[in-house]
UniProtKB/TrEMBL annotation:
The keyword Magnesium applies. This is Diacylglycerol kinase family lipid kinase. Its cofactor is Mg(2+). Pfam families: DAGK_cat (PF00781), YegS_C (PF19279). The keyword ATP-binding applies. Keywords: ATP-binding, Kinase, Lipid biosynthesis, Lipid metabolism, Magnesium, Metal-binding, Nucleotide-binding, Phospholipid biosynthesis, Phospholipid metabolism, Transferase. InterPro entries: ATP-NAD_kinase_N, Diacylglycerol/lipid_kinase, Diacylglycerol_kinase_cat_dom, Lipid_Phosphate_FormReg, NAD/diacylglycerol_kinase_sf, YegS/DAGK_C. Residues 1-131 form the DAGKc domain. SMART domains: DAGKc. Belongs to the diacylglycerol/lipid kinase family. GO terms for molecular function: kinase activity.
Length: 300
């Protein structure tokens, strides 16, 4: 008896989830005996549903929502003894994890790939006792993402983050960091720290073009200086996927990180406010098996 659970967030992105739900149910019913729909009402629901799916030995868990819903679902699935196959119907504004996995950003197309049952193993990050799939960030630009309202996101999409990021640059302040990584320790001051699991952060798919979802590594970028014309030069480098070559940027790959600061800083986890520094982070290698389009990636 094959069982699928759909975790649906009716508030995600442009609020289309409930319109798409019947099609997702119909498609999943073609290769499952039972499809259970679990609608989220508040923070924490998606995590609890996903954990329940592990305990009840579901075969499939589908997230219909944005990266926030994916993050919560992953927190429910990570390190459980039985981990169902995980599917993502991207309904958020940015959908970084779907981008990194080359899952169609058109939700109807993403639903259609499910019956091909083509999976890719993906790494999951662990920070203290929480899990993430995309990115850890520390600094004013990272904090700017909290100021983006639901209305702004619905209207502007990824541009909303860009607008808030630009405002944050105007009020920049550097902070001290001490970072232990696989090869040693980095100590200094920086304006921004970004540790990415994948190539896509904030909708930019070229932050770390070399990052793969299953490479077992965090890709750490430290922006040491923000000065004209150096900063103007950051953007072309970012667009060309060459950020790590910028003279004001330090780039480190590592399977784990221990990060502290003498200032009071908070880490942003997958776009949401996380916890105060210090933190330790590590990679759970090839931890989840995720529905991806056929013919592009390995069969598991
Ligand atoms: N029924 C609901 N009404 C309002 N908020 C909800 C509901 N269910 C869950 N949430 C909240 O929505 C958050 C996740 O939103 P999600 O990321 O899926 O969409 P989004 O914010 O539109 O997308 P993105 O992160 O790409 O901007 C959860 O952390 C939870 O707090």
């Amino acid at each position: 008896m094959r069982k699928a659970m759909i975790i649906v967030n009716p508030s995600s992105g442009k609020e289309q989830a409930m319109d798409l739900l019947p099609e997702a149910e119909r498609i999943l019913q073609t290769f499952h005996d039972e499809v259970l729909v679990c609608e989220t009402a508040k923070e924490g629901d998606a995590e609890a549903f996903a954990r329940n799916a592990c305990e009840l030995h579901y075969d499939t868990v589908i997230s219909m929502g944005g990266d926030g819903t994916v993050n919560e679902a992953i927190n429910g699935l990570a390190e459980q003894e039985h981990r169902p196959h995980f599917g993502i119907i991207p309904l958020g504004t940015v959908n970084d994890f779907a981008r990194a996995l080359q899952i169609p950003l058109d939700p109807l197309e993403a639903i259609q790939i499910l019956p091909t049952e083509n999976f890719r193993k993906a790494d999951i990050g662990k920070i203290n006792n929480h899990y993430f799939m995309n990115v850890l960030a520390v600094g004013a630009i990272a904090e700017a993402s909290y100021n983006v309202s639901t209305e702004q996101k619905t209207k502007l999409g990824p541009l909303a983050y860009f607008v808030e990021g630009m405002k944050a640059l105007a009020t920049k302040t550097p902070f001290s960091l001490k970072i232990s990584h696989d090869e040693g320790t980095w100590e200094g001051t920086a304006f921004l720290m970004v540790a990415s699991m994948t190539n896509s952060v904030g909708g930019f798919e070229k932050l770390a073009p070399q990052a793969e979802v299953d490479d077992g590594r965090l890709h750490l970028f430290l922006v040491k200086k923000i000065s004209l014309p150096g900063t103007l030069n950051l953007f072309p480098k970012l667009y060309k996927g060459e950020l790590q070559e910028h003279s004001d940027v330090v780039y480190i790959q590592s399977s784990s990180l221990a990060v502290s600061s003498s200032e009071k800083m908070v880490v942003n986890i997958d776009g949401d406010e996380g916890e105060p520094l210090p933190f330790t982070a590590s990679v759970l290698s090839r931890h989840l098996s995720i529905y991806v389009p056929p013919n592009e990636n390995e069969k598991v």
